[in-house]
Amino acid sequence: MSLTESKRQAAYKAVDTHLNSETRIIGIGSGSTIVFVIERIVQRGNFKKNDELNEKNENSDQKLEELDLDQCVFIPTSFQSRQLIIHNGLNLGEIDQYQEIDITIDGADEVDENLNAIKGGGACHLREKVVAEISKKFIIVADYTKRSTVLGEKWVKGIPIEVIPFCYALAYNSLKLLGCQKLNLRMAKNKAGPVITDNGNFVIDAYFGKLDGQQSLGNDNFMFINSPSEVLKRIKLLTGVVEVGLFVGMAEIAYFGEEDGCSVGVLKK
Ligand SMILES: O=C(CO)[C@H](O)[C@H](O)COP(=O)(O)O
C-alpha cells in the first residue's frame, strides 16, 4: 500500500476522533498529509449527503457527528494551507484574531517516542509553532516512516531553522560552533537562490546527529546535553534565528498511517 494511503488513514483517524459538532476554531498545518485532513473535514461537513459516512455512523462504535462548517473557522499555517481552506470553501481566519484555538492538526517530518517532533520540511514551522502554541490540543498526523525512537534517527536532512536573510552567514557559523555536523542553506527548486519562507526569511537545515540526550562537544569545546529541549534552547539563542523546527512537548497525540495503508498506530504521551 502506498505512503499516500497511510497519510490519508492517519488524517481521517485524527479528524474522526477529535473533531465534533462543538469544535469551532481549527488550526490547519502544512504539507502533503494535511490535504487529507481537509478532505475528511469537507466530507464530515457534507455528512447527510454522504452515504458511506452515514453507514459508518450507524454500524461502527465510533459515532461520527456532522460538522457544521459554517460555524467553524480555519487558521492556516502557510500559503499552502490558506489556499486549501479557501479552495474548499471553508471560513478562513488569521492567527492574530484568536488567543486560543480549539484544535490543530499538523504533519511532521519525524516524531520520537515522547512525541517531540522535527517540523519545517516545508519551511512553514514558524507559523506552525505559533498555531500549535495557542491550541488547546495539538495533534500530529504522519505516515509510518516518520516514527522514531529519538529525533535525528530518520530525518537526517537536519533541523529546519528559519533565519533573517542578512544574518544567515552569522547563524551558519554559530551553528558550526555549536557542534552541528552537517549544515545547508536550503536552496529553491526552479528558482536560482535560497528558499524564501512565507515570512520572507531563509532556512538553514542543521543536523546535530541523534538527539538522544548524550553529552555533545561543540566546536568551541563546550559540552552540552544533546536532548531535543537543550538543542532547541541553544539554537533559539543564536542571533538571527527566528524559529527552530523542533517541537518539544507540544503534541498531545500522534497518529501514524501504517504500512498496510489500512490501520493507524497511535503514540500518546
Ligand atoms: O512541517 C511541515 C511543513 O513545514 C510538514 O508538516 C512536514 O514537512 C510534513 O509534511 P508531509 O505531510 O508532506 O510529510
Automatic annotation (TrEMBL):
Give the E.C. number(s): 5.3.1.6
Single GO molecular-function term? ribose-5-phosphate isomerase activity
* Recorded GO CC terms: cytoplasm
Supply the Pfam families for this chain: Rib_5-P_isom_A
Main EC class the enzyme belongs to: isomerase
Q: What is this protein called?
A: Ribose-5-phosphate isomerase
Is Isomerase one of the keywords UniProt gives this record? yes
Note whether Isomerase occurs among the keywords: yes
List the source organism.
Gigaspora margarita
Q: In which pathway does it act?
A: Carbohydrate degradation; pentose phosphate pathway; D-ribose 5-phosphate from D-ribulose 5-phosphate (non-oxidative stage): step 1/1
| Source organism, top-level taxon | Eukaryota
Q: Which reaction does it catalyse?
A: aldehydo-D-ribose 5-phosphate = D-ribulose 5-phosphate
Provide a GO biological process annotation: pentose-phosphate shunt, non-oxidative branch
